[in-house]
Design a protein that fits this description.
CATH superfamily of the largest domain: Carbon-nitrogen hydrolase
Distance between the termini: 47 Å
CATH architecture of the largest domain: 4-Layer Sandwich
Helix content: 25-40%
Largest sheet: 6 strands, mixed
Shape: globular
Order of helices and strands: EEHEHEEEHH
Amino acid sequence: MPFIKYLAFLEDFALDMGGTVGTLGKQKIRSVFLSKNDEIKIAPVICYESIFGEFVTNYMKNGGNFICIITNDGWWSDSKAYKQHLSYARLRAIETRRSIARSANNGISAFINQKGEILKKTSWWKRNAIRFNINTNSKITFYTIWGDFIGRIFGFLAIILLLYLFVEYRIKR
């Protein structure tokens, strides 16, 4: 998870509700898993990491040519959150132009193509297994290189514009 370095003290307040408690740390470099013939380079994304686009792109920079998301969506219960979590996976496919195999216990497992289209999926909270052939891709996208740079530029420009309008308003008063 992002910010683990700055919020490590929160581990002392973690509740033991079963499963893993606390923080497990993170890698400095996002390493990919290799298939037996080294052709497939799997980007292993765990649960909530999939909502952070720039985090996922680091796997592509290290050679990942398809994404595998493993998640536990059951703790969201019957809310809209598990659907939103699946939607984030679709965004990651579009941003990186990588196919995604998403495995969710108590959630929606799915195969997503490089355009973000769900090709095959399971129902929520149903025991099921699916199989599908995926396509790999090694091309690096603009988003993989630059991330949220354009969004940050426009955010900065919006702040400048708001400051300008505020100053203009104060001068006219």
